[in-house]
User: Fold FtsX-like permease family protein from Raineyella antarctica.
Amino acid sequence: MNGPALLLTLRRNWRSFRTTWARWSAILVLLTIGLGVVVGLLTSATATLRGIDEGARSGGLADGTVITEVPLTPGQLADAEAVGATILPTPYVDVPGRSAGEDTTVRAFRSDQAVSRATVDAGTLPTGPDQVLVEKLHAAALGLRVGDQVTVSGRVLRISGVGSLPDYTLASPQLGQTSDPERFALMVVTPATFEALAAQHPDQAVSAYGYVLHGASADKLREHLQRVTLDPALAHNSYVARAVAAARGAGLPLSYPAMSLFLPADDNPRITGAISDARTTMNVTLVTTILVMVLVAYVLGEFSRDRILRDSVVIGTQSALGTSESALLRYYLALPLAVTVLGSLLGTVLGRGLAPNLDIITGYYSFPAVPVEPSALIVATGIGVPLAVVALVNVFVVRTALHRPTQELLRPQVTAGPSLPLRLERMPFVPMFRLRQAMRTLGSYLLIVAGLFLCILLMVFGLGMRSSMDTYLARAETDISFHDYYTLRFPDLSGVPAGAHQAVAVPLQVLQDGGPGKTLTVLGVPPDSRYFPADVAGLGPNQLVLSRAAAHKYRLGVGDTIALSDGSLNWAFRIVGIADYTTSAFGFTTPANAQSLLDPAIPVASERMTTAAGGKAVPYYNALFSDHPLDLDPDRVLTHSTRDEMLAGVAKFNALLTRIVALVTWSSMLIMVVVLYVLIRMVVARQRYSISLLKALGYTDREVGRLYLDNYLWLVVGSVALAIPVSVGIMSQVWRLMTAHLPIGIPFLLSVRDVAVMVGLALGAYAVVRVVTSHDTRSVPVTEVLKFRE
Assistant:
């Protein structure tokens, strides 16, 4: 295209923009908001994945974790090398602490770990006995900075650095628990300080190891460790030594209790949770991107088609004078593509600004700080994909519109639309007129429905997340009727503590529809349990009653089968009932059935330990529930959780949803207004001849407005009524994927208030557009009809 032709094209497009600037500006807003949310979520999700990868690489994340009740000897470590794996110590000790005036539980690690080392965001690793590195979420929750002081088991330590540990992306004290950084802190100290803390709290020191595979598989290493012979003299816990002796006396495997945990990194929910969330966010965002782009592309395509219809006389004249179709195509593509490029650039800039505030992931997980900047791929996608989609759609629409005879272009045609396969003579005039209008502009109506569906889908996502968490918290306060929950390493079978209610808890891995890190705790409770509404009387060894949370989490119902594994053995259980317990994912059975899932050495050794002390053993248990704290020997306790701690972790996750809910809701509302405004105005503009004809027949502006604009009220109402249940069905599956890593099952719910808000926003958007577009019908002159007469 030569210089004068290019200048002429620019001038004509500028005149076209000025005459319809409001509609083009609305499209620009739609692109900016839609792409801003998309780029922001993609940037946040990719930053999470980069941070996790950086932590795993810099910290030397081990291939898996092993925890033993008795430290492994140098010879046993060397034997693992011969098998094809390197096992390296990563011990920790849980001690009381105090940070910023708040009592905490501190899990202290050594700064000289060879694998799964801490990475530093600010400051340095501790180098002196009075220094400590604090995990970043704990520091953020309590406002701690480098140079501040914390108390660890009575020792005042200065914070030398703030960072994270690669195998504690979810900084939870136990597997299957949520994170509560205000009460639980990960800290790294020097080897000398660690040894002092372990000596001060020997019963809380844990012999943990990280393994690195170089030839062996995880299953082969597990089998090897299960055959390890333990030395009771090395046990820190007196009950461990007694258990080993009891196992030997009963002729049980000498490995008991060698491993209390063997967990490959790919199955570790502390690691996989953030990755799962980030990837789910990316998938949802990509689908949203496609929907937004298709919507915008078709709107712009309709704009171009509308311009061609209005400019048909000019096009026909130019065609008759020899102007090529490619030249006309370039002209009609220039303005849509220019608006698309500008909107994409503005959306990318907006997304870059939003990304650091979308911390539903970064605020809940702990990983090294990385720049929250859109990558080159995201920028290219944010600009290139809209441009490509809009270009393809517009080329198709424009070519179709231009493929008309020159004579037809020179003389504007008034089309009546497609013929209706219905006879409407007996209908009242107003319903008949509106139905005809709907059928004749069916494509535009479907486009409005698609736009409203996208907006409702986003609003259902945002409002539903918040309502689901609020409902879960309210229900959890009722469901969790106990105050304390203990799991025991070595129960005292001489009796059940006063005020306690015993159970048998067996954590197992879900083999189907679970993926890495998905577990279910099989809980053996008596039929008359006061804390769980599960009817377990008469259950067979391969039958379970699932809690409602577990049924939702794994999409199971009565009659289905669930496959579980302890790492060595697999079981298939038939679901015979669903208990109305929504707080935690449990599979309920009788205590005897649950005990049969344990290593037989465990209950036998526990019973021999009790009878050796002169007591008469009661039925085996390894979990206790109570209404108040129990006075238990700390050496026997494996974990201790309170009702408040369980609720606090979920409340933290709920609080992090606030920003993303607000962002999604407000952006959806703006997109809804823009979509209705743009499309209704465009359809009305195409009906100028009919509107003018009605006015010539004596209809007032108010009557014309009712005939042409009130139709869209019913379209909006019908679209919302259809979109809400469909969107709930879609987002229920998305939400299940987003929360699959949590130790709870939270159904996706939409409250009556949420539905009222969405209906109100949709009707409010229509009301705004109705007022604005009523000016379009009033501005059509009666003489407009004469333009189309001979």
About this structure: Residues 429-480+643-789 form one domain.
